[in-house]
Amino acid sequence: MDHERIAVLAHEKFPDRAKTALGVLRYGDQEVCGVLDRDRAGDRVRDHVPDVADAPIVESFADAHAAADGDLDALYIGIAPIGGGFDESWRADVEDAIEAGCDVVSGLHYFLNEDDELAALADDHGVDLVDVREPDDDLTVATGASGDVDADVLLTVGTDCSVGKMTASLEIVAAARERGIDAAFVPTGQTGIMIAGWGNPIDRVVADFAAGAVEEMLVAVGDDHDLLVVEGQGSIVHPAYSAVTCGILHGSMADGLVLCHAAGREAVHGYESFDLPPIADYVDRYEDLAAPVRETSVVAGALNTKDVADDEAATEAVASFADETGVPATDPVRHGAGAIVDAALDAGLGGSDGQRESEANAE
Amino acid sequence: MDHERIAVLAHEKFPDRAKTALGVLRYGDQEVCGVLDRDRAGDRVRDHVPDVADAPIVESFADAHAAADGDLDALYIGIAPIGGGFDESWRADVEDAIEAGCDVVSGLHYFLNEDDELAALADDHGVDLVDVREPDDDLTVATGASGDVDADVLLTVGTDCSVGKMTASLEIVAAARERGIDAAFVPTGQTGIMIAGWGNPIDRVVADFAAGAVEEMLVAVGDDHDLLVVEGQGSIVHPAYSAVTCGILHGSMADGLVLCHAAGREAVHGYESFDLPPIADYVDRYEDLAAPVRETSVVAGALNTKDVADDEAATEAVASFADETGVPATDPVRHGAGAIVDAALDAGLGGSDGQRESEANAE
């Protein structure tokens, strides 16, 4: 996947229920030339989302194609219905995109490649249907090679699912680049993969290969950057998803961890009979579990204060979180991720000398 | 899979390189009516393995079928070449079994169901090809339901891969049954599944469903038994396989853990640059990681002393292991698993009152 100019499908859901579309607009390297939303056709992206590059909102792929003067590489499916199915009202847009020579990229549970009509049409037109939830066939077990990549590795870990690990990772990369650090985002979930244009969906990899699929990514890009920020998943004490978290923790062999939390969260999201342990316990737990594979430490905290009433309360919540974790913290969305990058630099990560475990503050 | 009378294929490898065949002979409920090994045809099983039910060793499936008076349910592939491929020299036996109306059960990486010739033949004869490494399609995420099953749950956990968790689990079940406890083995790997005749291969399940696949098994059989012994996999600090371990730990919501170790093991098997942490650390690590999902404790230790020179040295090694873990220990093969069952009973597990968390020693 290496798409430069794309259209994003977000029918009837832009912007608030179009998480993937918003993520691509905000963090993707691709140029979004049009957003498909038949309910808002005629509006502009900036009418709804002020802080991203502008683009027209259009009725159909045909309109996006015309607005882009016929110069598009791909159509991204930027929304996911509950259950991850394919909405038949999208079929005409997907077919038009294929017939216009565009790849179609989807994070749906429903695989486009298993849709016989779409697969045949894509074959006829020589384009790719990219199902980002479908792991590569050639993944295998980890070997420990993540420990040998040149770049420093920072991993976001969480107190729970849905606390903002992907967003924190992307904001850290952005803030690091602002400081002149050659940083790259390493995606591990479908939205991150669509934003980055590459990656392995660790939750869909067979459990034996979870660590290996992280290692495969780090080895692939480790020589090209100085700092890799790996998107974490789930939590190490999640009743359902801890296997994914554990595979990423050991597979990444991270040099530093960023603990992510959502302010006010006290029980596991969707599993409310399970209380979250105290914040400070997470620091010990992640460090202790990582140590036999690679010694590492939590270098900073990222607190998601989306549900906090105002800036003052958010600042207080961040201060309290920093106190509990014992490391510098910030809300990377509300306040930027600069404090996290500074903490990582203080811990010796992100140096441009191409050596891991180099002296502190090599930057 | 509910096979009563089976033949086991172990060509050129019985008994020392036929781990699955030996496991089925030693622990399976199925009656093994013949072992196929063309190198030892004419011998008896007891000529090589004294402590299991006897059966003829034969040249071919046809000979096994004749020796069993034509009364066989299935052929089990009891060996696995390096790489898990299908040896073409077995094809005639597999075809003969299918044509005789027998299911064929395999733990190979090579799926019999994806072999067009065998699949068509099986279809013609109305028999099943059972690829135990292929997970069920209907697995999903854990819900926490393992905490509600009536049976008590004991999980074997390890310091590493290949330390004897499956064998310890099977010996614990046998010892518990000797004490009149209605105990059942819950298999999580392909050999265990072939022995038990059911189960989910957790290492092959997508990482998001690892815990859910354990839960699905416990819920399925939890009402039928008083004690479930879950076969653990890998180790929580394994560079490649910890995701599987973590999913089983949280998915089983175990009431007690049995820490398994191989005497003399100091580094991760196959990953020798990674040292094993001190034994006592494992106890804390497993208990701490399990606690937020379910409070549990290591109730006993199982030490594999296969590579220890003699009984005296083995007894010393077991005593030393018990000292390090702080719980009773035994080598379940050399000395039996009675001490582990006693420790579990002392911890309040295995009572026949159908209540979890019942008073100690309900048995």
List keywords for this structure.
homodimer; 363 residues; alpha/beta; Rossmann fold; six-stranded parallel beta sheet; 12 helices; 33% helix; DgcN-like_N (chains A, B)
Q: Number of DSSP helices of chain A?
A: 12
What Rg of chain A do the Cα atoms give?
20 Å
The quaternary structure here is homodimer
Which geometry of chain A do the CA atoms define? globular
- Whole-number mean pLDDT of chain A: 94
Helix content of chain A: 25-40%
Domain D-glutamate N-acetyltransferase-like C-terminal (chains A, B): 141-341
Protein name (chains A, B): Putative NAD-dependent epimerase/dehydratase family protein
Domain D-glutamate N-acetyltransferase-like N-terminal (chains A, B): 39-135
Pfam families (chains A, B): DUF1611 (PF07755), DUF1611_N (PF17396)
Describe the structure concisely:
Chains A, B: It holds the Pfam family DUF1611. The structure is a homodimer of 363-residue chains. With 363 residues, the first copy, chain A, is an alpha/beta fold.
Map the helices and strands.
The structure is a homodimer of 363-residue chains.
Chain A: E1 5-9, H1 19-27, E2 31-36, H2 45-48, E3 57-58, H3 61-67, E4 74-77, H4 91-99, E5 103-106, H5 116-125, E6 129-131, E7 152-158, H6 165-178, E8 183-186, H7 190-196, H8 210-221, E9 227-230, H9 242-252, E10 256-262, E11 267-268, E12 271-275, H10 279-290, E13 298-304, H11 311-325, E14 329-330, H12 338-346
Parallel strand pairs in A: 1-2, 1-4, 2-3, 4-5, 5-6, 7-9, 7-10, 8-9, 10-13, 13-14
Antiparallel strand pairs in A: 11-12
Domain D-glutamate N-acetyltransferase-like N-terminal (chains A, B): 39-135
Pfam family, one (chains A, B): DUF1611_N
Protein name (chains A, B): Putative NAD-dependent epimerase/dehydratase family protein
